[in-house]
Each structure stands twice: as structure tokens, then as C-alpha cells.
Amino acid sequence: MGKKTIYCGGAGNGSVAKICNNMAMAISMLGVSEAFALGQNLGIKASVLTDIFNCSSARCWSSDTYNPVPGVMMDVPSSRNYDGGFTSKLMTKDLDLAIASASGVGFNCPFGSQALEM
Predict the structure, then answer these.
(1) Considering 3, 4, 18, 93, which one is annotated as catalytic?
(2) Which residues are CB-contacts of 73 (< 8 A; sequence separation ≥ 6)?
(3) For 4-30, what is each residue's pLDDT tens digit?
(4) CA distance 28 to 23
(5) Among 6, 42, 73, 83, whose Cα sits 20 to 30 Å from the Cα of 104?
(6) Among this protein's residues, is 3 annotated catalytic?
(7) Range of the structural domain that residue 32 is part of
(8) CATH code, domain with 102
């Protein structure tokens, strides 16, 4: 659970904040993972990309706290054979909820939908 409590308004708004936060994290993690894969395939080390990302505009939770490349950061799921991380099953559940909620109010989430497909 988070370390900070933030009042979100009326009943249900906390759940809305949770699914929006998790959708943003899923999309971010996919982008960071793809960028790392591209960089490595083009010949740059993941540790070098990490240093660059984390002091520039690509810095985000997915790069500086839960880096997706095994061996770059210790004590994160990617370096523990993905043991103990937020499971794909839970992320799928939250993305399903986000997309269904968006649909319920006539809002289209193309990035969230793409993340769910992946």
C-alpha cells in the first residue's frame, strides 16, 4: 500500500484514482521496457540507459524504482525472476476495470486498451 493518504472526494473516487494510477504505470512500464529493449538491441548497456533515463526526461517510477531489466537494480522483481512483484493478473484486472469504466462514460482509452492487449 501507499505511504501517503490523499483525499479523493466522494465515494468511489479512491478506486477511480487507483485504476487511473495503475493504468498510467502499465503504459509507462511498457514504454520503458520497449525503450530498454531497443537500446540493448542497438548496442547500449541497460545500466547506461538507466543512468541516462534517470537524469533526463525519461525518468519515471518504471525506470528509477522498478527497473524492468534484470540485474540493473537489486531488490526489484526483474532481478528476482519477477518474484514478489505486482502480478500481470492484477494489472490485467485493473486495466479491465479502467477500460470498462472509461467505456461507461463514453471515454476512449487507446493506450490503456493497447496495454491490456499486450
Answers:
(1) 18
(2) 50, 66, 67, 79
(3) 999 999 999 999 999 999 999 999 999
(4) 9
(5) 6
(6) no
(7) 15-117
(8) 1.10.1040.10
User: Does residue 28 belong to any structural domain of this protein?
Assistant: yes
pLDDT of 87 above 90: no
Give the ranges where 42-86 is alpha helix by DSSP (H): 46-53, 61-64
pLDDT at 85: 62
Q: How many residues does the chain have?
A: 118
The answer to whether residue 25 sits within a structural domain is: yes
Place of cell 505486482: 86
For residue 70, which phi and psi values (nearest 5 degrees)? -55, 135
| DSSP secondary structure, 57-114, as one string | TT-SHHHHTS-SSTTTSTTSGGGGTTTTS--HHHHHHHHHHHHHHHHHTT---HHHHH
pLDDT value for 86:
67
Has residue 3 been placed in a domain? no
